[in-house]
Amino acid sequence: MHPDPRRLAALHTAVLSGSAARGARPVIIESWRRSLAARVDPDRHEAPVVLAPDEVADLRDAHPLAPMLPMLRETLVTIADDAQHVMIITDADGHILWCEGARDVHRLAERARLTEGSRWSEDAIGTNAMGTALAVGSPVTVHSAEHLVRTYHGWTCAASPVRDPDTGATLGVVDLSGPVTSRHPVTGALVRTAARLVETQLQIELAAREEHLRAANMRHLIALRGEPGALLSPTGRVLAAEPQGLIGSRVDLSTPVHLPDGREAHLEPLDEGYLLRVPRRTTRRPTLSLHFLGGLTGSLDGRPLVLSLRHAELLTALALHPRGRTAEQLALHLYGERGNPTTIRAELHRLRAQLADVLQTRPYRLAADVKADFLTVRKAVRAGDIAKAVTTYRGDLLPRSDAPVVSDEREDLSAAVRRAVLATDDPELLWTFAGSTDDIEVLERLTQVLPATDPRRDLARTRLRRALA
Fold it and tell me: CA 277 to CA 382: how far, in whole Å?
């Protein structure tokens, strides 16, 4: 049962004057707040007409709900005529694309700008069933003074969103609107039922299209001869996979496709849809070892690498960004704003001569298990394993490098380890860390915590004097 229009009008006036919204439904209160935040004027008289007739026609022709119009007419228009309502269908932005019903009510609707080409989103005309249903993603009934704009206090409307069964995106809303005097308690239920009927029909048609697509493209999956792969719809839904369960129910086509085990799959466009090829799982990934704290050495599966400082800087950047970096991003990491991607590509080409397929492209990344001492220290500090962090930290990260990515990581590691060591007051950890630094505060703390009988105390004092000098 809808509230009395006079009580709603009084509540509407009270809320707009700043009083508490006692008695209004929460969905309406929140919609009023959004509408007022969007600077909708409650005394505004009309919804904006933003589409010309030819633009409306173009949107209708391309809209997924256009084929559903006969079903909606059969379901709602006759009821709308009898109930003195109009049936309205909008797109996802709140543009009215269809408005149909009895002639006399249709004329009233046109006067109220309930007409094709007008925009009924909340930010355009405030609280209304169509715009609020789009905003909250669920069925909404708005009656009389529940409309923010006073012009529509003589109207009642019920709307329900329709979602795409493929992507889950909202396609638009189905709405019944009419004068307050024509309200009926089952209008909201009728609109919800009509929206669900449309979604069911869209689901049936989607299943038929996907079955046709699966049958037409299955030969491509069979041609893989047992290699991992999948058939995808044009929107990325998985139609078939070998082996079953290889990947989830949907693939994001806008980014490189990675499996849970780290393998990268490759998309091959078909006449309609895609074939997803998955490289076979290798028995073992190569191991790339990097020792850049206080030195510059590296190896690949135990084979020593001959690394220049620039190559070490590149490997540092790639190790810190395992998902990969473009040449432009690497140029910024190594040279700052003056970086040149062409120079970076040339360096990467020379580095690839040693790393082969371990250095992959698009984006540049390391296809290996990277065991880097600076990564070990970072992980140990975050885990609170100060002993491991200190024993692994044998000096600054690539101390001769001025590359921004190295300088930033060097400062972060040094500060993190220093802070952690000073917080422990552990003489053994302080002694170990002091071996890689002439930090005055560390040496002072060491002379304080080492026992007087410990010969290292005199050594620490000597080093402290030199550092102070």
Answer: 38
Residue 254's domain spans which residues? 223-277
| DSSP string covering 104-141 | HHHHHHHHTT-STTBB-SHHHH-S-HHHHHHHHTS-EE
Q: Are 231 and 221 in contact (CB under 8 A)?
A: yes
**411: alpha, beta or left, given left = phi > 0 and alpha = psi -120 to 50?**
alpha
What pLDDT digit, counting tens, does each position of 294-347 carry? 999 999 999 999 999 999 999 999 999 999 999 999 999 999 988 899 999 999
Q: 305 with 178, same domain?
A: no
Residue found under tokens 């709140």: 94
Domain presence at residue 218:
no
Residue 33 lies in a domain: yes
Residue 14: inside a domain: yes
Residues 267 and 302 in one domain: no
What are 103's two structure tokens? 């002639």
Asked if residue 365 and residue 265 are part of one domain, the reply reads no
CA-based end-to-end distance of the chain: 88
14-28, 317-331, 378-392: least confidently modelled range: 14-28
Q: Given the structure tokens 């909201």, which residue do they identify?
A: 188
CA atoms within 13 A on the CB side of 138: 3
Q: How many CB atoms lie within 10 A of CB 144?
A: 21
**For residue 161, how many C-alpha atoms fall within 13 Å in the half-sphere facing its CB?**
19
Asked if the model's pLDDT at residue 281 lies above 80, the reply is no
Q: What is the maximum alpha-carbon separation in the chain?
A: 105
Q: 63 and 97 in contact (C-beta within 8 Å)? A: yes
Q: Partners of 268 in the beta sheet?
A: 275
What CA–CA distance (Å, rounded) separates 192 from 208? 25
With respect to residue 74, please indicate whether it lies within any of the assigned structural domains.
Answer: yes
Asked if 395 and 386 count as a contact pair (C-beta separation under 8 A), the reply is: no
State both tokens at 446: 């060491």
Q: How many domains does the chain contain in total?
A: 3
Return the amino acid letter for 81: D
CA–CA separation, 255 and 467 (whole Å): 53
In this structure, what token pair is assigned to residue 166? 């493929």
Whether residues 294 and 334 share a domain: the answer is yes
Q: Which residue has the tokens 């109220």?
A: 112
Q: Per residue in 222-237, pLDDT tens?
A: 998 878 889 999 999 9
DSSP 149: S
* Region 33-49 average pLDDT: 89
For residue 5, cis peptide bond before it (omega within 30 degrees of 0): no
